[in-house]
């Protein structure tokens, strides 16, 4: 496991060469035992180069990077480790232009590296439902209509016209789940809430009519923002609204603009960091290494 790492300089000292990076990746990926990424067999032969292995079952050779986001990368693992330290330890993430300069790669490569790391942050298995007191809210991502070219304007000024919708569900003092959704219609909202929140929980929302009808499954309370009400005893959405402030500072202040196509990856990146906000730097890095299973090809990303 990585000890506490306070800077990129300390990280570089901890991993001075490619072999030290490969060894660390092996220690996490194979912490429960060695296995072949092709057939899942556990009869693994080691070679003297300490870089490649062979499966005793399917007879295929492979490296520790096969079957992960690092597969077929031409970049040194040391630069990947630096990128992981930067994306996991900067509260608002890092822009591809900044990463390109910091680790001496092209902006195109930096963008692909960051997208693969965002891919790793997406939860790939079922999570237990949120419970206790849960806040739910939506926010809109996108530029103002008046600032767009006339051909890009959707019309209207209310209800997030021309913008993308992000739904967030936050368990107080617990986990955040957020994602890009198609619309703010009642069926969309209610289905997402029911998929993620345990029945009987206390659900706090604003007065948006999209959340109506949830009182049958939850102890639903709503605050009326339009009437100037923001807190009524335990009824408020201050927690999830602080998440939106963080997300918008990330998008506006760091990335400046995010396409609808890739918006969900940026939301997942923010959520991943938020859910590990109490971890120390080394623990967050190790948690990212534990998520690297699965390959994302460039042609799939830009398709």
UniProtKB/TrEMBL annotation:
Taxonomic source organism: Acetobacter aceti NBRC 14818
Record-annotated ISXO2-like transposase domain positions: 129-275
InterPro entries: IS1016-like_transposase (IPR053164), Tnp_ISXO2-like (IPR024445), Transposase_Zn_ribbon (IPR024442)
Upper taxonomic lineage: Bacteria, Pseudomonadati, Pseudomonadota, Alphaproteobacteria, Acetobacterales
Domain of life assignment: Bacteria
Entry protein name: DDE transposase
